Amino acid sequence: MLRVAVMVSGGGTNLQAIIDAINDGKITNTELVAVISNNKGAYALERAKNAGIKDILVSPKDYGTREEFHKALIETIDSLNVDLIVLAGYLVVIPLELIDKYENRIINIHPSLIPSFCGTGFYGLKVHEAALSRGVKVVGATVHFVDKGTDTGPIILQKAVEVEQGDTPEILQRRVMEQAEWKLLPEAINLIANGRVSVVDGKTVINS
Ligand code: GRF
Predict the structure, then answer these.
(1) What domains does the chain contain, in order, with CATH numbers?
(2) Backbone phi and psi for residue 200, each to the nearest 5 degrees, phi listed first
């Protein structure tokens, strides 16, 4: 059974997609052990409560220094004894020590086809604003392992989404979530939970 912690900062629609996929049997062999947020007001924490999943707040505001926050976050995660950490809209920089400890055991959902529109400063609506500003005809989402860079780890899954005439950043964001993010993240977790993903020479291999 894959023990999973999901880290969130906002509305939690990706978390909800994971919860629903487990309930629907689209994700097997997986237990959501806890949902962790930096943001006390994150609706994702309500979604966790509603689903009977432990909700944990570890907020930088509660610690005197960034180092103390990192220490508390790492201790909290270690105490959960998880196999996989899922970043689902988690907007705080992950401590490098955590990435070392959980190498190729942290995944992230990014709302673009990496390497487009990613890296520092590309998050949330900013990604879609940049895509519309460039005038691309295809966008999408990417699930990748987290390494010490920003959106630079081995790519696990990607899914393309059409840009439509008249799209606003908000409309495009919603389409990417509905058509890509909410499908890819559960699929990636299911693949990992069933031992079908490995990393060879910095690239993923998806085994049938
Ligand atoms: C999503 O757009 C995701 O791609 C990005 O942050 C947003 C999280 O949304 N990483 P939600 O909290 O899952 O609704």
Answers:
(1) 2-206 (3.40.50.170)
(2) -125, 125
